[in-house]
Write a structure and sequence with these properties.
Layout: E1 2-5, E2 8-14, E3 23-27, H1 38-44, E4 49-54, H2 72-85, E5 91-96, H3 98-109, E6 116-120, H4 129-148, H5 150-158, H6 171-181, H7 185-195, E7 214-219, H8 223-235, E8 239-244, H9 251-254, H10 256-272
Parallel strand pairs: 3-4, 3-5, 5-6, 6-7, 7-8
Antiparallel strand pairs: 1-2, 2-4
Helix pairs in contact: 1-10, 4-5, 4-7
Length: 276
Amino acid sequence: MRLWCRDIEYYAEVLSSSKGLPWILHLHGFMGSGRAFHNLSNRLKDRFNPVVLDLAGHGRSGGSEDPARYSLREQMDDIRSILERINFRPLVLHGYSMGGRLALHFANEYPDLVDAVVVESSGSGIDDPAMRSHRQAKDEERAVEIESGYDAFLERWLNKPLFRGPSLHSPEWEEYRRIMAGQNPAWMAASLRGFGQGIMPSLIPKPGGRQTPLLLVAGELDVRYRQILITIEQKIPHSRFISIPEAGHRVHLDSPAVLADAITIFTNHLKQNQMS
């Protein structure tokens, strides 16, 4: 399925559409695509109608060399446009890493379009101005590295300790590598400049109104993001944090069956409370 949002043509894939099942929309991480979720989505087909979306500049979607086109506001507007045109309800929004930041902010901005949110190995923005400035400088450094030599950057990225996990060098991991290698370097650099952690605003939960239930997930081996998500849980009353045993940063890759069960249990509880 292809959908135009102003100047960008998005690619979405509906993996099943069984009547009576809720929908789950997966948003991938930086340099990823919807294909990265197939291992998880295949385990959810009997419980949800999974939809994978290639975000702006990634995978089979179009992109731009203008960093401003990847801003939080621009991407939220695109997601809203897509959801308003297609009746994915009830809807669980699942985002990993970069996609998790987008999912979290989107649900805060448009709670009436989402019935539940699952945030995997992600954050809500950086509160401290000095830390944000430092991260923005790091994002710019990485964008320059991408423009100077994408293959070399990719090898350094893949070898980051953050991404080590039990699925390392598995067939699924090799597929991840192929997805990343196939990206447009100019669009990756622009995405990092426009939607990197250093430039995006920190989440400010909206008081009152509808509170979207939130499941926060991190791998047991991912010490950094476990702590980040525990902190978010403390800030947001309608959230719940769980740690997935023996999983790293990419929980959907390391432990897809366990993650699928966690999402199912969480949303079954919501359905008992008449998920709209």
